[in-house]
């Protein structure tokens, strides 16, 4: 599942981040979007507005266009290289 597809209120773990733009990739990592980190969708505004995501203990707003490059763990996930 992608972060952009996460249902509201559901908690998931980040599997990996693969943004095609390197500056965005670095920015997302700086915000705390890293493998193994817990994310929760707090609020999803209509019409392309930012998603309110809780990353660890921090609330961050990101655009759906960026959230679709953040891949979440599934049942088959066996962990990550940190
Ligand atoms: Zn994983």
Which SSEs are present, and which pair or pack?
Blueprint: E1 11-17, H1 22-31, E2 38-44, E3 51-55, E4 58-62, H2 64-67, E5 70-72
Antiparallel strand pairs: 1-2, 1-5, 2-3, 3-4
The chain binds zinc ion.
Defining key terms:
single chain; 82 residues; alpha+beta; five-stranded antiparallel beta sheet; 2 helices; globular; binds zinc ion; iron
Question: What does this molecule look like?
Answer:
The chain has 82 residues and is an alpha+beta fold. The chain has a domain at 1-37 and 67-75. 17% of the residues lie in helices and 33% in strands. It has a five-stranded antiparallel beta sheet with strand order 4-3-2-1-5. Strand 2 and strand 3 (51-55) form a beta hairpin. The longest helix is centred in the N-terminal third of the chain and has 10 residues, at 22-31. It is globular, with a radius of gyration of 12 Å. The two termini are 20 Å apart. The mean pLDDT is 92. The structure holds zinc ion (ZN). Zinc ion is lined by residues 13, 15, 73, 77, 80. Residues 1-74 form the Ferrous iron transporter FeoA-like domain. Keywords: Iron. This is FeoA family protein. InterPro entries: Fe-transptr_FeoA-like (IPR007167), FeoA_core_dom (IPR038157), Transcriptional_repressor_C (IPR008988). Pfam families: FeoA.
Bound molecules: zinc ion
Order of helices and strands: EHEEEHE
Q: Which strand-content bin applies to the residues?
A: 25-35%
Distance between the termini: 20 Å
Major beta-sheet overview: 5 strands, antiparallel
Could you give the order of strands across the largest sheet?
4-3-2-1-5
What is the averaged pLDDT score?
Answer: 92
Low-confidence stretches: none
| β-strand number | 5
Backbone shape:
globular
Structural class, from secondary structure content?
Answer: alpha+beta
Total DSSP helices: 2
Domain Ferrous iron transporter FeoA-like: 1-74
Pfam family, one: FeoA
Organism: Marinomonas arenicola
Protein name: FeoA family protein
